[in-house]
Write a structure and sequence with these properties.
A hairpin with a 2-residue loop joins strand 5 and strand 6. Helix 2 packs antiparallel against helix 3. The chain is elongated, with a radius of gyration of 21 Å. The chain contains five helices and eight strands, in the order βαααβββββαβαβ. The chain has 169 residues and is α+β, with helices and mostly antiparallel strands.
Length: 169
């Protein structure tokens, strides 16, 4: 039975999943910093190792903060369409603009119909130069591992809310 009017399917961002890939890098950077401090007693090479450790930690933390800020919005599905996070903020795609959703392991790719442009009525968030080439080509990717709902839950919601009008392959 399709969901009722006004009901939303929401997949919140999984904070732990965002932090998981960061841990090994920070541990490695910490080891470099400790080794660098120890090598300072030997000579200038310790300063280089220390600087590399600090640089690795700073780059990874900066990248994490930038990605997390841009993609912190949840995936929302309702009877009018899908609002999904992209690299520069959320995009909204009405059901009639979607051609299909490709399932590639944990990644879903939202593919648009050929006639859809960033100025198509109802479409928002695709006007940015990073989003449109991906949306009009291979499709907007969505890594389902970064959300609190499973891939199967998300696919089931896509089927239910689109009333089986969306091809999922």
């Amino acid at each position: 039975m399709p969901p009722g009017v006004g009901e939303l399917f929401i997949a919140e961002v999984d904070q732990d999943a965002w932090r998981r890939p960061l841990v090994p890098w920070l541990v490695g950077a910490g080891v470099l910093v400790v080794a660098g401090v120890g090598l300072l007693l030997v000579g200038w090479i310790g300063l280089v190792v220390l600087a590399v450790g600090v640089a690795v930690a700073a780059v990874k933390l900066g990248g994490y903060a930038a990605r997390h800020k841009r993609r912190s919005s949840p995936l929302m599905i309702d009877l009018t369409g899908v609002r999904l996070p992209t690299g520069q903020g959320p995009a909204f795609l009405p059901w009639d603009t979607l051609r299909s959703v490709g399932v590639d392991g944990p990644t879903l790719r939202f593919r648009l119909r050929l006639s859809v442009t960033p100025t198509t009525p109802g479409v928002t968030g695709l006007h940015r130069r990073d989003a449109w080439p991906i949306a009009s080509g291979p499709g907007l990717p969505l890594d389902t591992r970064l959300f609190t709902r499973t891939r199967d839950d998300i696919v089931a919601a896509l089927r239910a809310y689109s009333r089986d009008s969306l091809r999922i392959d």
